[in-house]
Amino acid sequence: MRLQGRLRHGPDWGWPMSHGLLLVFEVTILVLAIFLGFEVISKVPTLLHTPLMSGTNAIHGIVIVGAMLVMGAGGKDALTWVIGFVAVILASANVVGGFVVTDRMLEMFKKRGRPRQHTAQDSPDAPGGRSNRTG
């Protein structure tokens, strides 16, 4: 029975797992996710990096929902509420920043005013044309 206090059952495996072994599994998954993320991001062309990052920042609305759930959870103390409040503020700033960057990127691709059509009269060499020379 003493062993049972130190072991935990895996989700669906049915065999007990120590907390140390569970921690090793979780750290391994974290390290693999870091390497995978680095490889994926390093393959993104520079032209696409900013739009993808702004979209990713906008997805952080999920963090806002999680932070609000932490703030609204029952049986919370002052520290939990403060951490949840700070998380809501930082995640909101991240979401707003993502939309601002996206808007700036989209402004770069908008067409400017139509260029003026040049006519024969605009040529300085044409008879009766407008000359850029003064005097």
Structural summary, described in words:
There is one protein chain. The protein is mostly helical and 135 residues long. It has two domains: 1-43; 46-110. 64% of the residues lie in helices and 4% in strands. The protein has helices spanning 2-6, 19-42, 46-58, 61-72, 78-109; strands at residues 7-9, 16-18. Strands 1-2 form a two-stranded antiparallel sheet. Strand 1 and strand 2 (16-18) form a beta hairpin. Helix 3 packs across helix 5 (78-109) and helix 4 (61-72) packs antiparallel against helix 5. It is elongated, with a radius of gyration of 30 Å. The termini are far apart.
Write the layout of secondary structure elements.
Blueprint: H1 2-6, E1 7-9, E2 16-18, H2 19-42, H3 46-58, H4 61-72, H5 78-109
Antiparallel strand pairs: 1-2
Helix pairs in contact: 3-5, 4-5
Relevant terms:
135 residues, mainly alpha, 2 domains, two-stranded antiparallel sheet, 4% strand, elongated, disordered N terminus
